[in-house]
Amino acid sequence: MRATARLVARADRHGRTALAELRGESPLLLRQVAATGGGVTVYVVGGAAGPLAGDELRLDVEVGPGAVVRVQTVAASIALPGRPGAVSRMLVRVSVAADAVLHWLPEQLVAAAGCAHVADAQVDVAEGGTLHWRDELICGRHGEQPGHAEINTWVDLAGRPLLRQSLSVGPDAPGWAGPAVLSGAPATGSLLVVDPARPAEPPAVRGTVARLPLAGGPATLWTATAPDAHTLRTYLDGANSSAASAGGEVNGRVRVG
Amino acid sequence: MTAPTMLLLLADGRFPAGAHAHSAGLEAAVAAGRVTDLATLGEYLRGRLATAGLVAAAFAAAARRAAWSARRPATLVRLDAELDARTASPAQRTVSRRQGRALLRAGREIWPTAAFDDLPATPGGPHQPLALGLVGAAAGLDPAQVATVAAHSTVTGSASAAVRLLGLDPYQVQALLVRLAGACDATAARAARAAEQPPQRLPAAAAPLADIHAEAHATWEVRLFAS
């Protein structure tokens, strides 16, 4: 199945966000829901099971100057096998303008046995833009080994590279379950926060969660591995709340070396 | 293939660039109980090759290609920023730049007439793969050979650290490296092909535990290895 969807948000002269464009097609449907404050919340509603290998899905998101948008999904998406040799692809292209805010907080991606899935995110954040970007990957449904899944996250800030990460799991990714990559943890994820208003915090690590200030601007990546989806969410929510309470308690030990 | 002895000299752990002081995350992985024996060391090295090894080899080969190009300073600046974006852990960025600085110091002494000044003057030093690309150029190596040096050192550094950290039998560790030679060559070949892409398209293979291990290790007050 091929589907494209597009979301364009603009702020009006009172600073309220309005959707200039919101269109999608099955299995990539977009629904606006009531939101508090001046921003808008949009849910991506999977119109069918999947993605199935062979699907080509594309979502474009444009957040104009001053607009505030939150994107969520109603449920985890489960990458499933399709016809032999086929790959499912999900491409998300995002631009966040100056003074705009995007919270991209979808539910997990589950890589089911036999799947072949590539998720590409290309995100451009203008100087002064704010981004919260969460990615969670569950390697296999309960008790199964995952197929091949590749999560590519390419983020530019003010036209310069901020984050490039490509995480591969499954039979085509040597050592992915080993002690250099996930050490058998079935859940892994990250939360990227780009926020020029937030004071810089030092790196920290606690258990299998690390807080990593990035080199390319006012941005921090939380990265984690976990025994299950719920624990992973707890780790990343903890990161998010420490991001909200700027200057608050340091989450973990402060680096001394 | 040209310059076989140059290739061996650069890949040798005795090349005076301080490589022996680094375990590339292995010391933290051992402390966390994730690497305990030869089998888990093998899995560790396979994972390193597919992630950090591929990225380092691709950037070293790309820097080597840039060394003889007209747009060399601009390309090296771009490669430096792209490698920063692939190194989320500040501890890993610091280590890469420290190793780059050490390699550059050796390169300047050994090839005094070679041009290293186009490397971006970043605080802390150039990233190690960029320094390796230019040192490789000075030594007359081609991009594929430079990628081979990078992939090879990815596995040999951690492997020799494993002998010290876990008291493993050196013969068994060497046999493991021999079994990994094919994977090492394949990684280098893939990296050399990838290096023909523009900097933003170079590999970015990530490993969550590499970031976590590096940051944990950096908090220790007493450690055997610098990384």
Q: Largest interface by residue count?
A: A-B, 45 and 45 residues
Total discrete domains of chain A: 1
Low-confidence runs of chain B: none
Low-confidence parts of chain A: 243-257
Net shape of chain B: globular
Q: Number of domains in the coordinates of chain B?
A: 1
Distance between the termini of chain A: 51 Å
The total strand number of chain B stands at 0
Taking the sheet with the most strands of chain A, its summary is:
12 strands, mixed
Helix content of chain B: 55-70%
Report the radius of gyration of chain A as a whole number of Å: 18 Å
Under CATH at level 1, the class of chain B stands as Mainly Alpha
First-residue to last-residue Cα separation of chain B: 33 Å
In CATH terms, what is the architecture of chain B?
Orthogonal Bundle
Description:
The complex is a heterodimer of chains A (257) and B (227). Chain A is mainly beta and 257 residues long. Chain A has one domain. Helices cover 6% and strands 50% of the residues of chain A. In chain A, the strands form 2 sheets. In chain A, strands 3, 4, 6, 7, 9, 10, 12, 15, 16, 17, 18 and 19 form a 12-stranded mixed beta sheet that branches. In chain A, strands 2-1-5-8-11-13-14 form a 7-stranded mixed beta sheet, with no helix packed on it. By secondary structure, chain B is mostly helical. Chain B has a single domain (38-219), classed as Urease accessory protein UreF (Orthogonal Bundle), CATH 1.10.4190. Chain B is built from 9 helices and no strands. Chain B has helices at residues 4-11, 26-31, 38-67, 72-85, 90-110, 128-138, 143-166, 170-194, 208-219. The model of chain B has no long low-confidence stretch (mean pLDDT 95). At the A-B interface, strand 13, strand 14, strand 17, strand 18 and strand 19 of A face helix 3, helix 4, helix 5 and helix 9 of B.
